[in-house]
Amino acid sequence: MMPQDILKSIDEASKVIGKTWPLYSFVTSNPLSGYEQTDFKTAVERAGSLLTTNLFPETALFRQAWEQGEIWDVVLKELLRESGYTEVPEFYLRQMESHKEIIGKNKNHILDGMMAKWLSVFMDEGLAEWEMPGKEAGFYIAWRQLAAYDQELGIHSVKDIPKSSGEALQQVLKGQREADYVDIFTYHLASLPGWTGYINYRSESNSLWQQAYPITMEDYLAVRLWIANQLNLKIIPETNTDDSSSELLTIQYIWLKAWESTWQQQLVRSFAQQKATRTNNKSGNKAPDAQMVFCIDTRSELIRRHVETKGNYETFGYAGFFGIAMDYSNLDDGINRKSCPPIVPSAYRVYELPQSRKKEKVLTYKRKVETAQFGAYFLKRMKNMLPSAFGFVEGSGFFYGCYLLIRTLVPGPYYRFKKKNTPSYEDICTPELLSNQKVETIPLHIPLEEKAGIVKSAFDLTGWQEFAPLILFVGHGSHSANNAFASSLDCGACAASPGRHNARMLASLANETEVRSVLAEKHKVHIPDSTVFIGAEHNTTTDEIMLFDVHVPRSHQKQLSVVKSNLVLAQQTATQDRLGVEQNSVRMAERKANQWSETRPEWGLAKNAGFIVGPRWLTKNDNLDGRCFLHSYNWKLDETGAALEGIMQGPMVVTQWINNHYYFSMVANDTFGGGSKITHNITGRFGVVQGNGGDLKMGLPLQSLRSSDTEMYHKPLRLSVLIQAPKARIEDILSRNENLRALLDNEWIYLMVMNPMKDDKVEKYQKGMSWVPVLGSSFTSAKKDVKVTA
Hints:
- The protein has 27 helices and 18 strands.
- The protein is α/β, with parallel strands linked by helices.
- A hairpin with a 3-residue loop joins strand 13 and strand 14 (687-690).
- The strands form four sheets. It has a six-stranded mixed beta sheet with strand order 12-11-15-16-17-18. The protein has a five-stranded mixed beta sheet with strand order 2-1-8-9-10, sandwiched between helices. A five-stranded mixed beta sheet has the order 4-3-5-6-7.
- Among the domains are: 4-23 and 106-230, no CATH class; 359-421.
- Helix content is 44%, strand content 13%.
- It is globular and about 80 Å long.
């Protein structure tokens, strides 16, 4: 039995650890989420000290931003003056540059290496041919049974080791002050934040692997501390203070805030220009020929701009899981995977059912999948089994060589060939929504009113007013080859799964006659009989938009044909814009999607810095360079504020997670990022390590953040949220949601309100529910080209 004082201390210490998500479901999240009740600056300083790393942007990034005019001189000077710094900005920039960070040898190198070795063999998820014996008993018991065979430990018998993790911790902590327990546990959990983050993920998600082979923080600490004690290594951390380092962090923080404030003012000024040029003669506008709902993902900003120029189309932004908190059962393997935000419990489960008169095609499809799966399994066994490994490699070398030659020399044509000849079940199946609750083993069907509620919520949150003949729900997914971090490029709102399943499900619900009847009778939402909903997917690597349109009636085929042609044109101009080329841009995108040596198939959510909640006119004619999440919202239609509260509680929190994940991966890539892809090694199927061991990488690789070793691509700024809504409504929501106020008061996120009751004046939230103008005082004279050089 573990003593309560130890358990309580472990729980407190665990707050320093975020979650390390597996490669197959790589969800971006704040690695310092346990610190969100602490102000950002203090949290960063504490975590940085604990992890022996600086968690503010390096000086070279400030220099680049300064010279490129992304930090305005007048903004920086005012912030410096407020903190008592009177020298010119260049003085402090050079002061930061003169401070050389001293990186000493890792004092825990031996201990970290031993723990990484044991964790990798225990937590393996099927990559290794030979499993660690005794795993089903849990990490501590399995380690104890084998520890005597580890010569580094110098143990003669298993009897020398305590029988339980509780006994081991009590033995090691004997003689230590109880007041030091939290510091001891925090120090050792933070030494390998990637591995302990994955233990945290497995424990909280209670995954199938965790159920079969349990591991807890208590087990980890018991093993680590007992080994440290056995090897006479230091258990309690040393404390030291550095006043010069503290002042450096303060100056860095001022520069960061100046960078963020400049970005906010640039954003607000662009909105002011949009309002000045906006035509209010909406009555003269022709009803849209089609409407398309894209994910709020920053990559949707570009494709929406290009789609809108190709026809009379209206686009919306909505969280990419389309409001369906579901798990999805893939027809290929039958495995249920989460397809909604990690912070949302899955209420539904979606299956694929054969369409009428297509059951035989579904059976044929399944046979092809089973054959392919057996072939992959057979090849793996032949490569890995000791008796056949050498002969198989020799015999198959020629065929593998030809395959690699094709993939290397003609990746684009091979991508198109594979896409054309890969069977798809979307044309022969229909998604079926069932409850995650069961009676014995039988899933429950969803009440009609609940289905109607899901559809209505989509219209409420986006501020829908009229219905076009064709309405597309466009999820998004990515495509890349030989990319361990491929799932990080899929839909974050769908727990790193493609959004196509949710898009198809919502379209299917909205097409149901019974659902439309309930919407009309109970909710006064009248969908015309002439409106057809279609599920679709935006491939963010190639900017192709694929439509799943098997249910579209003949009456709409001509209109659909026009939409498809215009989406092809949008793909061409979008890839030209994104890749910076005028000729063969689509071919280049397809080549990047299938080139096995491509380190940057696409940039994902890099550059994200803003979250805009409001009508499309705010941003429609502005190129935001893929830096903003865009959520549609019409404050006039949201009389109770319920829709806005849902957006702030859900998408706003999720985008903050994404933003923090990119921030910390950028400023401390060795600790919170993924390191260089060049030296990645996949371990256990769930993660990567750098080289042949060490800590599990928990964030994004360098190639997803930098355009070169020295030039940044992602700009590490905290998320700035701008909402067009009455300020009183936002204050009312914040007064009821302490978690949202904590994020704002502690500056993990910025909030600006564009108040339509005050002529769209923009104010920024300050701690304690106060507000200040964004464009005010001396800031109104700031210009983009203002900079100081010496």
